[in-house]
Amino acid sequence: MNDVFNTLLEVEARDPEFARAYAAESARIEAIDSIINALDEARGTEKLSKAALARAIGSEPSTVRRLLSSDSVNPTLGTIAEVAAALGLKVTLTPMSRDERTRITEPMRACT
Fold this sequence. Notes:
This protein is mainly alpha-helical and 112 residues long. The chain has one domain (3-110): 434 Repressor (Amino-terminal Domain). The protein is 71% helix and 0% strand. It has helices at 2-12, 16-45, 50-56, 61-69, 77-86, 98-109. It is elongated. Residues 39-94 form the HTH cro/C1-type domain. This is HTH cro/C1-type domain-containing protein.
């Protein structure tokens, strides 16, 4: 199954629009996953329960549980910044590595 998927992906990736969309979606998923994992790790380090974190940001505990547990989360930047601040963190941007730029940025720009 994995070989079939990889072969199909390789064929589809020859289309610049498909490659752009795939790179953009991959980058979005990777970024959100990385941020959510970092926030949850910081919450554990701070020994803060999800309910306590929710109170710190003026939200319902269920909101924080969904944010840190759901597979289909897509938080706003404002929510991320607020949760980060409650954990003593701030949101910053860092340059991509050369490999990431090749894998993500170049396909996204190929359609311009």
